[in-house]
Prior knowledge:
The structure holds two protein chains of two kinds.
Chain A: H1 2-18, H2 22-44, H3 47-63, H4 74-95, H5 105-119, H6 124-143, H7 146-156, H8 162-169, H9 173-191
Chain B: H1 9-12, H2 19-31, H3 43-57, H4 60-65, H5 69-84, H6 88-113
Amino acid sequence: MEAVGALERDAQLMLRVREGDDTSFGLLLERHRGPVVHFMYRMVQNQAVAEELAQEVFLRVYRSRETYEPTAKFTTWLFRIATHVALNSIRDRKKEKGHESLSDSGDEMLGGLERQVADQQPTIEQEMVHEVKLREVRQAIEALPAKQRAAVLMHKYEGLDYTQIAGVLSCSESAIKSLLFRAYEALRDRLAHMA
Amino acid sequence: MICPNEHGPNKHGPDVECAACRGFAAVEERLDEFAAPEVTPGFDARLYARIAEEEARRPWWLRLLWPPVAPLAAASVIAVALFMYPGKPVVQKQSSKAEIEQVAQAVDDLDLLTPIDR
């Protein structure tokens, strides 16, 4: 019931933004900034790029305020924009010749080791094992086709249900279930040795 | 939980899962390790700067149309003007009624002036 109320509040806030109320846009930003940035981060695996793309999402939300109609849940609409921006970014970066992975997992590993030396907890070996496992999870997700990746991230980390994900990706619920099943199978196969 | 058989523990009992469920549960555990860092403090400020930059580039006439201040103001002026000038047709009716009465009175006066023996 609380979740339903929150969704209705989002639509109401966006309608107020349509009427020129910028304070309501600030409230929506406060509520959805984190989830959108985190979604982008797991999609492109680079913090700076993720925040830039997330800003593009909110810029498009603000730009669309005059024609906004609550025909779908606000979260569905928001993540439709976010997925579109993310997929475009991934496609554009793939086209660049000599493209290297944007993943900043190497920096994180170094950062982890630096923290380890400073704090001495947990042990260096444990930290290294954790970093290796994390890198493998990141690589497994990065290896998924972009749409499967987006569906997994929305399902696993952002709590969207099948109906919402179907609305975001403009396909049927059964197609989403099939997409997610294939994605989880692929992840299971890649990560099996970690079990 | 993703399961190709589309059932959960309830069908088998509270502690029993199918092999597919167990496999995907292990994947979910691994995915839990993929934490996302916090949003940097300047995020909102940078966003609002981009919005302000974009708004500044909008044509001036488009900025007048949104928020819809100018159209609403124009509609208000027109409504007030119509309200201020409702009476001209009524005044015309009153004038014509007065004119008719005057003519009728004039006819009566002429009758009075006419010799009786005609």
